[in-house]
Amino acid sequence: MLVLLDQTRLPAEEVELVCTDAPALVEAIRSLAVRGAPVLGIAGAYGVALAAVRGFDVADAARALESARPTAVNLSVGVRRAEAAHQAALAKTGDATEAAAAALAAARSLHRQDAEASARMAAHGLALLDELMPGGGHRILTHCNTGSLVSGGEGTAFAVALAAHREGRLRRLWVDETRPLLQGARLTAYEAARSGMAYTLLTDNAAGSLFAAGEVDAVLIGADRIAADGSVANKVGSYPLAVLARYHHVPFIVVAPVTTVDPDTPDGASIEVEQRPGFEVTEVTAPQVPVTGAGGGIPVAPLGTQAYNPAFDVTPPELVTAIVTEEGAVSPVTAEALAELCARSRQV
Ligand code: MRU
């Protein structure tokens, strides 16, 4: 079985969610009990191993898992890695138990690699911050949730802020609440509080006045998919921050493992952006409030209101100051520099 911390219940409760088969994991991914690009890859790989260990059809499980959510490319990277290990072992030994063990080993190795990548991204990211803003005392604005909840290690963008905090160089972490599902308020604030960081929560709408007041030194976000041209898909609300950052001459930095770069997606327009149910916008669905609406939450809009609810948006490369990966930073962000980075990472 696969045991996950149910992220839909945070910060009110720390509750484990036990998945005994791949369909249960697919549901956990769809409901965002497990979410965030790197950990989706890790969970997907473990899901394939789970199907193999339990004797289910591994290819069926892999297809269901990788299509559970469309935008984060890490999910299919993780699923395919475990599936390939399973297939190779089966072809070599003809033994289902050995093939299942190979899938599990691949999942564990991805989990370990992600933790290592996280530590390296934190170091590269902090070095970049210090280069861009010598003197320290960084005031960083972040969006969505990119800490240890989404990673085998300490995360992506959040890991950089955490490294700055540990070095005494983080003056403040500004946390966007991240409507509609409040990953910033529920999860990033939870992680920042546990880490003892100086943090302040703001509504997404308040970011503009914060920039105008000169209170933001850098924006640090994660990514769900980076196209070959450097376009970055991340939680909806990231693109407006990039526009604000450019207008206010503030660096806009994306932190993501190399597995988030997808050479098979040529540009931003080719990235499939997940559309989520309208009730996430028309109702408050936080777990700690009593439930009454069609989606299980409290209605905050007239019944029957249509909602536009893309889970992600795409920031064009020209608005991204740098992409920080475990292999180093790419700046300026160009297709050539990203291709070179991917090639270097394959050689390691
Ligand atoms: O819909 P979510 O909560 O899965 O969206 C997650 C994000 O957008 C994160 O910023 C992204 O996955 C990067 S996590 C390191």
Automatic annotation (TrEMBL):
Record pathway: Amino-acid biosynthesis; L-methionine biosynthesis via salvage pathway; L-methionine from S-methyl-5-thio-alpha-D-ribose 1-phosphate: step 1/6
Reactions it catalyzes: 5-(methylsulfanyl)-alpha-D-ribose 1-phosphate = 5-(methylsulfanyl)-D-ribulose 1-phosphate
UniProt-listed SUPFAM superfamilies: NagB/RpiA/CoA transferase-like
Annotated site location: Transition state stabilizer: 144
EC number: 5.3.1.23
UniProt-listed GO biological process terms: L-methionine salvage from methylthioadenosine
Family the UniProt entry places it in: Belongs to the EIF-2B alpha/beta/delta subunits family. MtnA subfamily.
The name this protein goes by in its record: Methylthioribose-1-phosphate isomerase
Native source species: Streptomyces roseochromogenus subsp. oscitans DS 12.976
Source species taxonomy: Bacteria, Bacillati, Actinomycetota, Actinomycetes, Kitasatosporales
